[in-house]
Structure formats: structure tokens, C-alpha cells
UniProtKB/TrEMBL annotation:
InterPro entries: PAS, PAS-like_dom_sf, Sig_transdc_resp-reg_C-effctor, Tscrpt_reg_LuxR_C, WH-like_DNA-bd_sf
PANTHER family: DNA-BINDING TRANSCRIPTIONAL ACTIVATOR DEVR_DOSR (PTHR44688)
Name of the protein this chain belongs to: LuxR C-terminal-related transcriptional regulator
Stretches assigned to the HTH luxR-type domain: 112-177
Source species: Lutimaribacter marinistellae
Keywords of the record: DNA-binding, Transcription, Transcription regulation
Length: 178
């Protein structure tokens, strides 16, 4: 890849080997914080909100990239200072037989389009179980709450996310680290 085109691309670019950053461009370093030299050899896992998110999204990547050598999604990532932000990720494997071995990825900060929403721990629990398709009664049974309390949490979630109905809320939550 042309070094100038890579270095000065208007989106964050990284070259990954086994989900470890081999190199990144200036836009990527600016987006996540620091200099390009801070990222060489850094496991991508360190830029995810949690190990669970890293593993969940990695499993999604692998499944899709086994049938096609490209993948894209919108997800929450973590800057070096710990701040979370929404990011659009797109990648292509250069080794289709082993998709994680070598690839090129772009990352774009979309946090202005999708701001982070603060949730209480109980709202987060209700959101997770709602995304898994559980009814208010099933969620209540798992969390030791009445279904009416679960419905009250869902109502607050609908308001916080600007959703009119539960399916719209679940769609908005689908990229959230759960």
C-alpha cells in the first residue's frame, strides 16, 4: 500500500496481524489518542470496552469473513484515555483462508451521529436481556424484579434512546457493548 495514501487517509487505518496492530495512520492515532508509534504491537483488544466485547465482535468477524473476506459494523470502542465512543469499522482480510492472520481495517468516529448514553446498572441489565428477546416477565424473573418494574426501566430506555417501540430500541441497542 502506498505509504503516503495510508498515512494521510481521511479515515483511521490499521494493518492487523492476528488482531494485533502492525501499523496505523495518523487519523487512527488521533481518533484513539496518542501517536502512531504508540500503537505498533498493541493488541486490538485494548481498544474495546471489555474483553467480552472483543470476543463477541471477533466471533462475528470470523463467521462473516469465512464466507466473504470483508466485514463492517458500528460498535463502541475505547480511546486510550478510557472514553467510550461510537465507531464504524470496516475490514478486509488479506488471508481469506485465515481471516485474522492479516488484514486492513478502517475506523471512523461516528460519535456525533450516535452519542453515548449513560445507563444505570439495572437499565443495562434490562437492555441486555431485552436484546436477547426476553419478555418483561422473563427479565423480571431473572433479575428478581416485577414485570412492572422491568416495564418502567424499558420506558426510561425508550426515552433515553429516542425510540417509540421496543423493536426500535433493540435496533438502537444492537451495537452497544453488552
Amino acid at each position: 500500500m502506498n505509504d503516503a495514501a495510508f498515512e494521510y487517509a481521511p479515515v483511521g487505518l490499521v494493518e492487523l496481524e492476528n488482531r494485533v496492530i502492525r501499523r496505523c495512520n495518523r487519523q487512527f492515532a488521533q481518533m484513539f489518542g496518542g501517536d502512531t508509534s504508540d500503537y505498533a504491537g498493541l493488541p486490538l483488544m485494548q481498544l474495546y470496552p471489555s474483553l467480552a466485547d472483543f470476543e463477541r465482535i471477533g466471533a462475528q468477524w470470523l463467521e462473516v469473513m469465512r464466507s466473504t473476506d470483508t466485514y463492517s459494523d458500528e460498535r463502541v470502542m475505547r480511546r486510550r484515555n478510557g472514553d467510550l465512543f461510537w465507531c464504524r469499522a470496516r475490514g478486509r482480510s488479506l488471508t481469506p483462508d485465515d481471516p485474522f492472520r492479516h488484514g486492513i481495517w478502517s475506523f471512523s468516529d461516528i460519535s456525533e451521529e450516535r452519542p453515548m448514553v449513560a445507563l444505570t446498572p439495572r437499565e443495562r441489565d434490562v437492555a441486555i436481556l431485552s436484546c436477547r428477546g426476553l419478555s418483561a416477565k422473563e427479565i423480571g424473573a431473572q433479575l428478581g424484579l416485577s414485570y412492572r418494574t422491568v416495564e418502567a426501566h424499558r420506558a426510561r430506555l425508550l426515552q433515553k434512546f429516542g425510540a417509540r417501540k421496543l423493536p426500535e430500541l433493540v435496533a438502537k441497542l444492537s451495537g452497544m457493548p453488552l
